[in-house]
Amino acid sequence: MTNIQPVTEAAPPSPTEELATLARSRGKRATAAWRLMLPTPTPWLITGLALIGGITVFGLLAPFFVTDPGAISNTGLSAPGADHWLGTTQTGQDVLAQLAYATRGSLQIGLLVGVLATVLSAFFGIYGAYLGGAADEVFSLLSNVFLVIPGLPLVIVISGFVPRESRGLWTIALVLALTSWAASARVLRAQTLSVRNRDYVAASRVSGERPWRVIAVEILPNLLPVLASQFVFAVIAAILGEAGLSFLGLGASSSSTLGTMLFYAQNGFALPLGAWWWFLPPGLMIALFGMGLSLINFSIDEIINPKLKNARLVRRRARRTARMNRKAAAS
Amino acid sequence: MNYVLRKLGFYAIALWAALTLNFIIPRLLPGNPVDILLAKLQQRGGSITPETRQAYAILLGGDDSQPILAQYGNYLANIARGDLGVSISYFPAKVTDVIGASMPWTVILVGVSTIIAATIGIILGALVGWRPGTWLDSLIPATTLLAAVPYFWLALVLVYILSRGLGLFPGQGGYDVVLDPGWNLPFILSAIEHATLPALTIVIASLGGWLLGMRNMMVSTLSEDYVLTARAKGLPSRWILVNYAARNAVLPSVAGFAISLGFVVSGSVVTEQVFSYPGIGSRLLAGVTNNDYALMQGVFLYITVAVLAANLLVDLLYSVVDPRTRAKG
Amino acid sequence: MTLHVENSNTTARPAGGPVLTVKNLSVVYETETPIPAVLDANFELGRGEILGLAGESGCGKTTLAYAINRLHQPPARIASGEVTFHDRDGEDIDLLNLEDESLRRFRWSKLSMVFQGAMNALNPVRTIGAQLDDTLRAHNPALRKPERKTRSADVLTRVGVDPARLRSYPHELSGGMRQRVMIAMAMLLEPQVMIMDEPTTALDVVVQRDILREIVRLKEELNFAVIFITHDLPLLLEISDRIAVMLRGEIVELDDAETLYRSATHPYTRKLLASFPSLSGDRGAFIRSGEHDSFEEQK
Hints:
The complex is a heterotrimer of chains A (331), B (329) and C (299).
Chain A: H1 15-25, H2 33-36, H3 43-65, H4 95-131, H5 133-148, H6 151-161, H7 169-196, H8 199-206, H9 211-247, H10 258-267, H11 276-304, H12 306-330
Helix pairs in contact in A: 3-4, 3-11, 4-5, 4-7, 4-9, 4-10, 4-11, 5-7, 6-7, 7-9, 8-9, 9-10, 9-11, 10-11, 11-12
Chain B: H1 2-28, H2 33-43, H3 50-60, H4 68-81, H5 95-130, H6 139-148, H7 151-165, H8 185-222, H9 225-232, H10 237-249, H11 251-255, H12 257-275, H13 280-289, H14 293-321, H15 323-328
Helix pairs in contact in B: 1-14, 2-3, 5-8, 5-14, 6-8, 7-8, 7-12, 8-10, 8-12, 9-10, 12-13, 12-14, 13-14
Chain C: E1 18-29, E2 35-46, E3 50-54, H1 61-68, E4 76-86, E5 92-94, H2 100-106, E6 111-114, H3 128-139, H4 145-158, H5 175-187, E7 193-197, H6 205-222, E8 225-230, H7 233-239, E9 242-247, E10 250-256, H8 257-263, H9 267-275, H10 285-289
Parallel strand pairs in C: 3-8, 3-9, 6-7, 7-8
Antiparallel strand pairs in C: 1-2, 1-4, 4-5, 9-10
Helix pairs in contact in C: 3-4, 4-5, 5-6
């Protein structure tokens, strides 16, 4: 019984390897690795990008085109009409104008906290896993502990102890980031551990590459899809978290966000008075933005887990075959 | 056994971390919580003795006469004794009493809602993943949209439509105030009626996460060798779905319960605010409004301990559900 | 441009009629440009014979095996052909047109499979006993629990595994043991055909030898036919009655093991035979230096 190569249990393939195999099995030339990392344009992805793009443009540019959101008038609580496209608040302020500025505010803080949280989780997750040993154990324990301690109550307590005057944008952003990095860190750590044990990383280390180079050149590129996905989650969580905080009156004192808008709507008795144009748009804006980000995350998910991409292609083929069969049966 | 010990050890550390956080926060942040608290207490008609000041100093800091470690020791001792001070917002009730009265409301609401959402989400996720290409696929973007909706906004919309608009459910409170609280039928029915909208909010908003997670895992699991073998063995389709595919696909959902419970608890705090539901979340917020630091600290502690306990239970349950963890030890 | 194989070529016609007939079977992968995985496969499998199916990775042998049992999944599609199972009691079953429920009942009870890499073929969250039980319950609802347990214990003993292992989980067994369990599972309903896809490739040589001896012994005892799929041609030469060689989806040679070894007709077969190093170091130039007769030109 001669066996030239005893087949050993292969390590789970990295996303790029699996995608390359997929592409090759289709009879195409294997595409460059970085191109495989890009998502395929599906209707979901395009919808997601459209939502994100639209809302971002609205937040960036609309404030230049609307009237002063703080201008009080005496047409309080009027429904949407020619003068005010989204009606007015209790004090006669234009809801559309407020929406524009509030969207910008929410986007700002979402981005800020998203970046902060991702940096924190990247540090604790990736660096810890790379170092291994005691450092990894400690970092991992830290993230697990932060993970199980419930976030919003902690944020509320911290915000509650800070006197109103000191609740600036950066304070709130920092507090939100500190309570939301843990989940991402765990995911990044798991991914780094799996990449770290691959042969090309070992080869790089053995050949004397400096740690930061090994991380930057060998490990990070494989983590990019996961990092992107975690960043998206962080931004969604940040916007939702800040909205909740502001709704409770604990948000950044000076800023105007979708959350503060809802706070004023609640305090202005928008709901009992039936002023749906006041509280519906801000929440809808948050929901649409979150949905857009989630749709983009689906496409990133397909890159991380090519089996999902396979499943979608199988569905598409099944539909096509069914259509062909129907046409054949009809003719 | 090893697994159990490790988990117990971890949760002990997490508990210690929470207690320490609770101790540190008032001392780190600007302002003098003790003075503010005592001022408010006097406003409500409480009397301030040196012992009272001492007690609050131990709880919140501001007592420089003792080294910090001694303060820490006293703080832990007080916690162990169950002394969390007197609440300003609900003066003269003790903090532990306030929490004790409101805890069951939240536990029942959050517990039941999470179980319902998890059950529905996992079953739907398994079905969507098992047979792709049916109308069920459209559930995915729909629940994703709902998951991106802020809990409290969804609550407002539901109240607007179902309560104010259609008058189906009450929009405020935990029960009809004219009734006697207690184990009598009218009260229980009223409680259920009042809990419907808050529960519906939590279920709708958290369904998406369970569904998506389960569906993704199903897709992965279906390409595993043991599912192929099960089909080759001629096992009935439904048997494979339940015992071979779903049984394996559900594991990460169980493991990830920790993260989802954290979200649900966070969401429920704000939901309670919208509904004026007499749960622990509204107590926390009342504390914030009134600078009732003792209550805030107490509630945070209780919430954290409850979440930690739930997570510990789930982790222990996981070792029953996945035999491989028992071996790794 | 292919060497058309006629079964009448061989002297080893299956005695007493074949148990499985495959005629003009073609399997296509419906990707953006369709890829033929199996082209026009023709062969018969005799009762109680061991038919080896050899070829390099990607030649379509596994696709062929899966297609016979209709386990192939999209994008694979059976483009044409017939697969007929000749049951012991005289009935002929057209496998490709079986209804779902009949296919389910047919599977495992008449034709079972042992997959490559049994490491993952066992459900990690159910005990061995439960998985054997599942199989029995799915096909023999009349059997009661104690009888099922006895049968499961029996079949484990037959392959040399301690029946106490019925209570174990797959991760508690070694690779060799898991493979034995898979073989036991395949024998559970006493099928007439067993398809084995690289059953020993992932194991060390000593365990391989043991398991192959078991397979041959069991075959003698229970008289089932085996389609043995592997890239290891010398292995097939030792245990098979007849050998089929596949290249790029086509069966290019099908003959007695003996005849194939001594006078293989197709150039690819000859190249395969020549590529395995011998202990004496005579053959094997292809492996060491890459020199070979390019058989492409001889087509």
